[in-house]
Amino acid sequence: MARDGLPTLRIAVVGTGLIGGSVLRRLAQTEHEVVGWDLDPGTRTTGTDLGLAFADRLDDALAGRDVVFLCGPLSSLPTGLAEVVAAAPKHCVITDVGSTKMAVAVAAERAGLAGRFVGGHPMAGSERAGLAAATPDLYVGAPWVLTPLGVPGLPAFRLLARLVLESFDARVVPLDATVHDDIVALASHIPHILAGALATATDRSDVRAAVLSLAAGSFSDGTRVAGTPSARTTDMLINNRAAIARRIGLVRSALDDLVDAVVAGDAERLLSCLSEGRHARLDLLARHTEPASRTFTAGESYNEELTYLLELGASGGCVTGCQIDGDRVTYAVLKPATP
Amino acid sequence: MARDGLPTLRIAVVGTGLIGGSVLRRLAQTEHEVVGWDLDPGTRTTGTDLGLAFADRLDDALAGRDVVFLCGPLSSLPTGLAEVVAAAPKHCVITDVGSTKMAVAVAAERAGLAGRFVGGHPMAGSERAGLAAATPDLYVGAPWVLTPLGVPGLPAFRLLARLVLESFDARVVPLDATVHDDIVALASHIPHILAGALATATDRSDVRAAVLSLAAGSFSDGTRVAGTPSARTTDMLINNRAAIARRIGLVRSALDDLVDAVVAGDAERLLSCLSEGRHARLDLLARHTEPASRTFTAGESYNEELTYLLELGASGGCVTGCQIDGDRVTYAVLKPATP
């Protein structure tokens, strides 16, 4: 029995690179029984050498599991999901850790898995790759998005929310899959594109060596994620191209405003535009939230609970606790507050 | 006598915010005799409270000084330079720490100061501001650009190079002022514009709170310098608008390439473009340099020394040591090398 009453679970982590490996290493420190599997035999050996439980065959990893974390490359998730469903027990709850959520949600709904599959996206990472770079503390304090597929997904959502909160010390952000993809276009994908643009322009420039020699913090921070393995970034960006296309105009328009003001020497307009951005940046550093809680009883509809959760996430809030007591569920949450 | 034979100098630091304050705090740890001055009486009090020597009047700060660091806001430098020249001894060498070098170089040449003024730009900073944020170690290991105004500036360059190397543990990058401004457009100013564009677009977006809630490392790093006081960034960008205008096209073109490939779902083209950028990023993390040295004797022309230094800096190299032995000067340098 884990703290707050979550039973000990039998968990499998399928795909153990940086992200899945960090999930596995964290769970290995808890009272849950966890096993890893990776397509690459070398990774399985590395894992065993690190003292982690690894299965040699996917079937063996999945047998008798209560929860499966599907952590392969983004484009492999729909196929991987079908493989897991074929081999895992019928009661098994499945989640993933992919950085876009629509494609896998569509695949899960088509396969009739709305009651068993809840998409996930732990919002932390690194420009490094592989199990050797994995660390059990990667997700501590980070937002972890969960995207239930409607009302049928609520029981699985509750289970995963408790697991994420209790075992990872992360914050759960409930979101509709489409809304998630729209938000991360700005919160993650376009930042990768901007970093790539700066690094690529430098690579192509006739002052490349001198720029690298003089690069201060602004350049170094602004290109950090350009060091991410390019195939991984490509996979992520292509998978979310619709949302990126919807949101890139906003960033290009702000860029135009800034560049136009600079080139025109219009200090007043430039200051105004930079101040808007500084406002958002300072709010990021000191986010103002206030705690609240909400209990749902058997008398209330699941629809009400789902709506509450999705609106909470979309408005910038998160779940910090989930207690189940008979037919009552109580969510402790943080809501954005005006300072 | 300092190490490597630099005599003990009487130094004034005029303007003691983040940058000047860090210069002052560092020099206060050396054997040089240093005094600070700031236009703001509150800053002078803060400095005195921190145990730093401060003068109440600019004249007092400048009397009998061998070297002056002019560290006020960028746009104030030409005026500040005239004030310093009026009050400092005739032999006094003057440098500044501004992030663009053309405007102050033009002002110095017009004032006939080519033999006494060498522009400077220590390439480290912080999004914070003020003397309280200043730290003596800010420049350790950082590139510190020095821009001699032709052959007449060489003796002053040598003095400042030794001071920067010995007292700040920085690397000296000799550059022509125009070349400097062109390089920092890419190495610092355009990164500030990109960070501003991302932060401003977020501030304007209808999913602002959710984006800030989900922001992972890529967003946080990509907006860090958007937290810089906006007036300081405005001053810096406006002062270098010509070079920014010359270089922004390269970044926009790379951005277009990336966005076009994403929107078209062209994974192959996207991977190729991201890989170019990753190449530059990885070179930034593991710059390959090789040590060399060069001695100039009285028989060689100053022109030759100047050309050597400026080519070294423009090619991505730097000076790591400067020894003067009678009429010989020996530079220890690092040159970019192919891995």
UniProtKB/TrEMBL annotation, chains A, B:
The keyword Chaperone does not apply. It comes from the Bacteria. Transmembrane segments: none annotated. Keywords: Oxidoreductase. Signal peptide: none annotated. PANTHER family: PREPHENATE DEHYDROGENASE, PREPHENATE DEHYDROGENASE [NADP(+)]. Belongs to the prephenate/arogenate dehydrogenase family. This is Prephenate dehydrogenase. It comes from Hamadaea flava.
